[in-house]
Amino acid sequence: MCPQHDDPSARLTSSSGSAQPNEFSPEERSLLLRLAHQAIAATLEQREISLEPPSAHLAEPRGAFTTLYYRGRLRGCIGYVFPVTPLYRTIAESARGAAFDDSRFSPVTQDESLELQVSLSILTPPRPIQADQVEVGRHGLLISLGPYRGLLLPQVPVEHGWDRIAFLEQTCRKAGLPPTAWQTGATLQAFSAEVFADPK
Predict the structure, then answer these.
(1) How many domains does the chain have?
(2) What's the CATH number where 85 sits?
(3) Same structural domain for residues 49 and 83?
(4) Residue 20 domain-assigned (yes or no)
(5) Does any domain span residue 40?
(6) Measured at the alpha carbon of residue 164, what is the angle toward residues 156 and 5, in degrees to the nearest 5?
(7) Does residue 31 sit in the same domain as residue 111?
(8) Neighbour order of strands in the sheet with 140-145
(9) Nearest-angstrom CA–CA distance, 71 and 60
(10) What's the CA gap between 175 and 159, in Å, rounded?
(11) Where does a domain end: 124, 158, 175?
């Protein structure tokens, strides 16, 4: 599940209220946000852009989600959990997916693209975690059992005011599982996310 539309640029904080350290510099953040806009514009204009990472850091494989807002409302969200492609390419592909492939919305139009606000969530690799170790506001969750899999980003339980148990239950529901599946054999993995967005 992606962030809600009311605060796309909120800083991710831990449950103790302390901000997580930033991995990406202001220059890198600006570059990645600009790339997301360029990927959407290039698709609308039926042209290609270079997806060659400009630095070793942005060439590292990372999972990421791109969330789009239009006039303050959610307009699309697509992402990749696992780090299978360089981050630079992941941002471009997830931006295109959010604009044109999110089944909840019609494809973004040329006019809309001029007013889109982009929010990026860059994920750490998922790691196994015990249910009692999950921290609301710090961890995103990936719950899986057999063919069922559900993911919620770290921002989501904070936005909804969920405690740890509600977070676990809602992630199970996202996977199409009973809300108690986290207690009855489902696999739990956690990740964190660095979240940043276009200026309002």
Answers:
(1) 2
(2) 3.30.700.20
(3) yes
(4) no
(5) yes
(6) 10
(7) yes
(8) 127-128, 187-191, 140-145, 148-152
(9) 33
(10) 20
(11) 124
Q: Write out the H or E segment, with its range, that includes residue 68.
A: strand 63-70
Helix segments in the chain, DSSP class H: 26-44, 87-100, 110-113, 155-160, 164-174
Same domain for 34 and 116, yes or no, is yes
Q: Is there a single domain that holds both residue 92 and residue 120?
A: yes
List the chain pLDDT tens, one digit each, 200 residues.
Answer: 665 444 433 333 233 333 456 899 999 999 999 999 999 999 999 999 999 999 999 999 999 999 999 999 999 999 999 999 999 999 999 999 999 999 999 999 999 999 999 999 999 999 999 999 999 999 999 999 999 999 999 989 999 999 999 999 999 999 999 999 999 999 999 999 999 999 87
Angle 159-161-162 from CA coordinates, rounded to 5°: 115
- At which of 124, 152, 180 does a domain end? 124
Q: At what angle do helices 87-100 and 26-44 cross, to 10 degrees?
A: 50
Q: Are residues 120 and 35 in the same domain?
A: yes
**Does pTM surpass 0.85?**
no
The residues that bridge with 120 in the sheet, in sequence order, are 66, 196
Closest CA to 74 of 170, 6, 161, 155: 6
Backbone φ and ψ for 15, nearest 5 degrees, come out as: -65, -20
Provide φ and ψ at 61, rounded to 5°: -65, 130
Whether 166 and 157 have beta carbons less than 8 Å apart is answered as yes
Residue 92 sits in which domain range?
Answer: 26-124
Residue 14, both tokens: 């831990």
